């Protein structure tokens, strides 16, 4: 009898092991990409008299598709591709290039298993903007004024997240912090000139080189393809700039003047070479300017404090 029960026990255990080793089959189901992907746009202020909007540059964008799990959007095909995640598929985008401009919006809808569908839409949007005269006067003295990074104050350079924060919470420079490694950061001058009504230029002079990262993280001419963050030879440059409504959406209470400096071309910069071309003016007085700029590593927001000379 004992032998019988022993054999039965072994048999049941063997069956349990075999059953546990059976491979389970998983199925994702239909992996068809999302369908009926559509970009709907409403240009704010658009009517029969103002077919391209009221000049605010604001456009309400809604992306819809069947069987979509998430969406991303690139707002302008004329700039490097930057697909932004849209959890709900809806956003209000402010276009800031002055005058009447055509933008190509690209939307991507993602479905099961990473499948995706893409669609584009062209829109024409008008943006009219006149900066506060006090900002122009403080920056240019209504003629010409030069600025340098103010190494004498804490926080003259710093970095934090581009989204969800408006402070350099990751790192903030101490007084004179870059003197030892990169004194070119403090000897570079940035001269802003008012040429005529709504016409401005920036001249950059760097007697000790430009403080920047290298390779694809800067667009400045002559910077090597690789190397550490440092001072690099740069012959200076002059180019136009314009004032635009700040595109970041930061509230005026941050503080922010709601106004940005937009540099034309790729041969000028302010303060640090590895930055985008829109510099939001948080604060400006006749002697002090505080800027917030998206880095070429686009998850970063950089902060600069400058003084007039």
Report what the structure shows.
The longest helix is centred in the first third of the chain and has 20 residues, at 2-21. The chain folds into two domains: 35-127, Immunoglobulin-like (Sandwich), CATH 2.60.40.10; 133-308, Lipocalin, CATH 2.40.128. It has 309 residues and is mostly beta strands. The protein has an eight-stranded antiparallel beta barrel. Strands 4-3-6-7 form a four-stranded antiparallel beta sheet, with no helix packed on it. The chain has a three-stranded antiparallel beta sheet with strand order 1-2-5, with no helix packed on it. β11 (189-196) and β12 form a beta hairpin. The chain is built from four helices and 19 strands. It has helices at 2-21, 133-140, 179-182, 184-187, and strands at 35-43, 58-66, 70-74, 84-86, 90-94, 99-110, 116-127, 144-149, 157-161, 171-172, 189-196, 199-205, 210-212, 230-232, 237-245, 259-263, 275-284, 288-295, 300-308.
Helix and strand arrangement:
Blueprint: H1 2-21, E1 35-43, E2 58-66, E3 70-74, E4 84-86, E5 90-94, E6 99-110, E7 116-127, H2 133-140, E8 144-149, E9 157-161, E10 171-172, H3 179-182, H4 184-187, E11 189-196, E12 199-205, E13 210-212, E14 230-232, E15 237-245, E16 259-263, E17 275-284, E18 288-295, E19 300-308
Antiparallel strand pairs: 1-2, 2-5, 3-4, 3-6, 6-7, 8-11, 8-19, 9-10, 9-19, 11-12, 12-15, 13-14, 15-16, 16-17, 17-18, 18-19
Number of helices: 4
CATH domain fold name of the largest domain: Lipocalin
Report the sheet with the most strands, covering strand number, pairing sense and barrel closure.
8 strands, antiparallel, barrel
Strand order of the largest sheet: 8-11-12-15-16-17-18-19
Number of domains: 2
Distance between the termini: 104 Å
Decide which structural class fits the backbone. Answer: mainly beta
- As a whole number of angstroms, the C-alpha radius of gyration is 27 Å
Shape: globular
Provide the β-strand percentage band: 35-45%
Portion in helices: 10-25%
Order of helices and strands: HEEEEEEEHEEEHHEEEEEEEEE
* CATH architectural designation of the largest domain: Beta Barrel
User: Low-confidence parts, pLDDT < 50 over ≥5 residues?
Assistant: 1-6, 8-13
Would you count the extended β strands for me?
19
Mean residue pLDDT: 90
